[in-house]
Write a structure and sequence with these properties.
mainly alpha; two-stranded antiparallel sheet; 13 helices; globular
Length: 277
C-alpha cells in the first residue's frame, strides 16, 4: 500500500510533489504507470522474495532437507528479471515455472533499479564474500521485509538471511547490512511480538557484529534521535535523514516514520512525501 501510494511521487523533490499535489503532498493513490495505485519494482521484487522463501520451505518440507535458500530466492529474482523482458545468463528456461511468473500484471517495467538488473544479468551470484559491485542503493533493503517473516521457519537467522539476499545485488556493506537490520526488526516485531524500540535495540546490537557497520548504525541512531527531538514530523524533518537513495537512509526514514506516526495513514504519508526515492 505504501509503495502504491508513493509510486506517483517516486524520484520527485518535495517542491515538485507540493507543486503537483498541493501543500500536503500525496494523500491518496494518484495515477502512475497508467494506473491509480500502481506498484513499483519495490513490490514486484518483494513478492518474488516471498515466492523464493516459500518455495525453499516447500522443498525442505517435502524432501526432509533444507535447500540453499539464497539460491532458491536468486532463481526467483531470475523470474522477476524475465518479467522485465530481460534474461540472466545464469538462469536457464526452467526459471520461468511458477504461478507468480504467470501473473500477467507483473510483466511490466516499473522503473527497476540498474544495480538490480545488472547484478541479475551477471554470470555469478553476488554475495557478501564475493560482491558484484560496491553499490549501497536502496534496492536491497526495499525488498527484505519477507526475510524477517520467513527466516526462522527455514532454520535461518533473520539478520544474516537479510544480508545474504540483499548481497545478491548490492555489494557495499551498507547496502546489505541495512537489509539485515530491517529483517531483524521485522522478526522481533512480528514473531516475538516485540515493541519497536526493542526491535531497534536488537538490530543495533546485531549490526555491531559485522564489519563496516558504522554507516547503518549511525543512520538508525539518527532516526531514533530525531524521533524524540521534538521536531514536528514533516518532509523537512525527514530530509535530515537523507533522501532514501541509499540503503541506510531508506532504512532510517522508514524507522523514523514508524516511530513518530500517529497511525498507519499518517506514517505512510510521511514516508512518501519527501524529496528523493
Amino acid at each position: 500500500m505504501g509503495d502504491a501510494l508513493g509510486a506517483a511521487a517516486e524520484f520527485l523533490s518535495i517542491e515538485q510533489i507540493r507543486g503537483r499535489y498541493g501543500p500536503d503532498g500525496v494523500l491518496e493513490y494518484e495515477p502512475a504507470y497508467g494506473l491509480r495505485g500502481a506498484i513499483t519494482d519495490d513490490t514486484q521484487m518483494t513478492m518474488f522474495t516471498v515466492e523464493g522463501l516459500l518455495r525453499a520451505w516447500v522443498r525442505g518440507a517435502s524432501k526432509g532437507i533444507m535447500p540453499d535458500v539464497v539460491g532458491v530466492v536468486d532463481h526467483a529474482y531470475g523470474r522477476w528479471l524475465r518479467t522485465q523482458g530481460e534474461r540472466g545468463v545464469r538462469f536457464d528456461d526452467s526459471v520461468e515455472d511458477g504461478w507468480l511468473f504467470d501473473v500477467a500484471e507483473l510483466h511490466h517495467r516499473r522503473a527497476p533499479g540498474n544495480t538490480c538488473l545488472s547484478a541479475l544479468r551477471a554470470a555469478s551470484r553476488g554475495s557478501m564474500e564475493a560482491p558484484l559491485n560496491d553499490s549501497k542503493g536502496c534496492g536491497g533493503v526495499m525488498r527484505m521485509a519477507p526475510a524477517g517473516l520467513g527466516a526462522r521457519a527455514l532454520g535461518e537467522d533473520a539478520f544474516e538471511l537479510g544480508c545474504k539476499l540483499a548481497a545478491i545485488t548490492h555489494g557495499h556493506p551498507s547496502g546489505y547490512l541495512a537489509a539485515g537490520a530491517l529483517a531483524e526488526i521485522i522478526a522481533v516485531l512480528v514473531l516475538d511480538d516485540g515493541l519497536l524500540d526493542s526491535a531497534l535495540d536488537r538490530a543495533e546490537k546485531r549490526l555491531q557484529e559485522y564489519r563496516q557497520h558504522e554507516e547503518t548504525l549511525g543512520a538508525l541512531r539518527a532516526a531514533r534521535e530525531l524521533a524524540v527531538s521534538g521536531m514536528v514530523p514533516s518532509p523537512e524533518a525527514v530530509a535530515r535523514l537523507g533522501q532514501g537513495w541509499v540503503a541506510e537512509d531508506a532504512l532510517a526514514i522508514s524507522v523514523y516514520c514508524a516511530l513518530v506516526a500517529e497511525n498507519f495513514t499518517h506514517g505512510v504519508r510521511l514516508a512518501v512525501n519527501h524529496s528523493g526515492d
